[in-house]
Amino acid sequence: MTQLPLNIQISTLPNSPGVYQFFDGEDKILYVGKAKNLKKRVSSYFNKNHEYGKTRILVKKIKNIRHIVVSTESDALLLENNLIKKYRPRYNVLLKDDKSYPWICIKKERFPRIFTTRRMIKDGSEYFGPYTSMYTIKTLLDLIKNIYPIRTCNYDLSEAKIRAGKYKVCLEYHLGNCLGPCEGFQSSVEYDKQVNEVRDILKGNFKSSLHSFKNKMRLLADEMRFEEAQQFKDKIEVLENYQSKTTIVNPKINNVDVFSIITDDAFAYVNFLQLSHGSIIRSHTMEIKKKLEEKDEDLLQLAIFELRQRFNSESKEVYLPFKVTVEPHLKVTIPKLGDKRKILDLSIRNAKYFRQERFNQIKIMDPERHTKRIMAQMKKDLRLSKEPRHIECFDNSNIQGSNPVAACVVFKNGKPSKKEYRHYNIKTVEGPDDFASMEEVVFRRYKRLLNEEQPLPQLIVIDGGKGQLSSSLKSLDLLGLRGKIAIVGIAKRLEEIYFPGDSVPLYLDKKSESLKILQQLRNEAHRFGITFHRNKRSKAAINSVLEGIDGVGEKTTRDLLKKFKSVKRIKEASLEDLSAVVGNAKANKIYKTFH
Predict the structure, then answer these.
(1) pLDDT band at residue 557, thresholds of 50, 70 and 90?
(2) Whose CA is closest to 205, among 150, 259, 242, 152?
(3) 3-state secondary structure (DSSP) of residue 339
(4) Fewer Cβ atoms within 10 Å of its own Cβ: the N or the C terminal residue of the chain?
(5) What are the φ/ψ torsions at residue 132 (nearest 5 degrees)?
(6) C-alpha–C-alpha distance, residues 457 and 486, integer Å
């Protein structure tokens, strides 16, 4: 069949909800997407200029479009999810943790066994989970074993075989871990009652088990059977101790799923909290690799569907940070205050911790990727035209106008490049004039780089507010560099970031990595400048002490310091030692001055 031109394919698309698929010239699937209106959504790919290069490349590769019409948007979401899993198109988001998780199984059989498995078999058995940690499963199974005598053998305990005496009790029976259903010592009704209580615990409901144990403990105590009552008391303590380890929220919040999302340029992190009977029974964070210009709403929608499906959630209500389209039967709450808002904030905090954990791992395992991400974030936060791989920061140091100096520190790929640090003695400014000093040092720095044909930075950071920034701009104007190098000022008081020609400062989030790098630059420039300034003042003080002595000049001072290293040692030196360096006449004058 002859392939129709794209404009004809687009013009004949329906205005209905559905799923669209993009194919290349070799009929390989490139992308799967959903839409409320297929014609409008697909047309948007070809009718606008895309900011991201990946989207532009995708559009160039599209040679064929296919679509499937469905009844509702939620049906489109389901179909999109299934097609992405099946075909894994190159330009669709990648769910980074799409792997097999363990479950707890209550086997469909007479006297059901309870065990962990990674395979779900459709034989009528019940599966709880999946769990993201084997430690959680082990803790739960140990808890169940300590409270309920559940069998561990895999015998077929049919009524006929038990009546025929086919089995004998094992060591577990003698240890008290099993009540011997294999020999008919425990009825199926009594055993099933235990399994029902285990089922409640796995759902996060400890109430019925605790109530049952407390009633039995009281009855046994009333009958003076204190040893048996103590056994139930021990079980109550085990159950209450486990329950106290789960995060307790408002008990009225029951059977709710909570979702939050944190994103950057390359990845999204979606946290899922599952609440049951006032406790958090599950927390899981999913990492999603972005491929195109996906919005937070679309990524969160995809994650909600995927995580609820994966973890078999039956909750009828979800708490979300903002409105997204979900399954029709779900109630959506966007909390603003109170306990509901606190639990949403907890979910956001979990997503942030997971993101930071991943950053720390990448920093160790893949430093180049870490650097690329930081640079991309700085470019976005500071509204730059290119990534600031080379940054230079300036700071002035003087005390009441004495010994004015300036420092320039250099960062390459977000890290200090100390061999390129430079310090400057201020030559043309008299008195404490920060603005004029900044103007001089910026001019000298970039005039030299231009003369020597050295690479210029992508970003200049000035330690100071609007005044220092304006002075620096004068120097860039004189050199013809204005607009060729991005420049910002950072003021200490509230960490305001000033841009040329903009009187309103930018305030970055206090935990922002871009702000942390700017602060590190500023602090490093301050440290480097202060150290140089102190050394200069110290040297000036030494020279003034020695050169104040009649007959002692710059050469004599240099010879003395070369030999004795400090003024203190010169003071403590004997007349003979001083004579050996500067001769008898000068030695006598120096010795008399200090003694």
Answers:
(1) low
(2) 242
(3) helix
(4) N
(5) -90, -5
(6) 8
Whether the pLDDT of residue 383 is over 70: the answer is: yes
Tell me which of 212 and 269 has the higher pLDDT: 269
Of the candidates 86, 78, 22, the one whose C-alpha atom is nearest the C-alpha of residue 292 is 22
Go through 197-220 and write b for each residue having 16 or more CB atoms within 10 A of its CB, e for each that does not.
bbbbbbebbbeebbebbeebbeeb
- CA 9, 15, 20, 22 dihedral sign is positive
Query: Can you give the pLDDT at residue 399?
Result: 52
- Residues 262-288 have pLDDT tens digits of 988 778 899 998 887 666 777 788 888
Continuous H helices in 180-295: 188-202, 207-222, 226-245
Q: Is the CA virtual torsion 355, 358, 364, 366 positive or negative?
A: negative
Q: Round the CA-based radius of gyration of the chain to a whole number and report it.
A: 37
Distance between CA atoms of residues 48 and 5, nearest Å? 19
How far is the C-alpha of 12 from the C-alpha of 5, rounded, in Å? 11
In contact, 396 and 404? CB cutoff 8 Å: yes
Higher pLDDT, 65 or 573: 65
Structure tokens at 462: 């000035």
Q: Please count the other Cβ atoms lying within 10 Å of the Cβ belonging to residue 8.
A: 8
According to DSSP, residue 417 is labeled -
Contact 497, 508 (CB under 8 A): yes
Q: What is the Cα–Cα distance from 160 to 166, expressed in whole angstroms? A: 9
Cβ atoms of 444 and 430 closer than 8 Å: no
DSSP designation for 384? -
Could you count the other beta carbons within 10 Å of the beta carbon of residue 490? 24
Contact predicate 590/571, CB 8 Å:
no
Pairing status of strand 267-276 against strand 331-333: unpaired
Task: Write the DSSP assignment of 272-334 as a string of letters.
Answer: EEEEETTEEEEEEEEEEE--S---HHHHHHHHHHHHHHHTT---SEEE-SS-----TT-EEE-
The predicted-structure confidence for 82-127, as pLDDT tens digits, reads as follows 788 778 888 887 776 656 678 888 888 889 998 888 887 878 888 8
How far apart are the C-alpha atoms of 405 and 421, rounded to whole Å? 14
The band of 319, judged by pLDDT with boundaries at 50, 70 and 90, is: very high
* d(C-alpha 153, C-alpha 479), whole Å: 85
Measured CA to CA, the distance from residue 358 to residue 97 in angstroms comes to: 13
C-alpha–C-alpha distance, residues 208 and 211, integer Å: 5
Q: Distance (Å, rounded) from C-alpha 63 to C-alpha 230?
A: 75
Residues contacting 188, CB < 8 A, separation 6+: 110, 111, 181
Nearest to 398 by CA among 423, 369, 362, 381: 423
Q: Which one-letter DSSP state was computed for residue 42?
A: H
Percentages helix, strand, coil for the chain (3-state, rounded to 5) are: 45, 20, 35
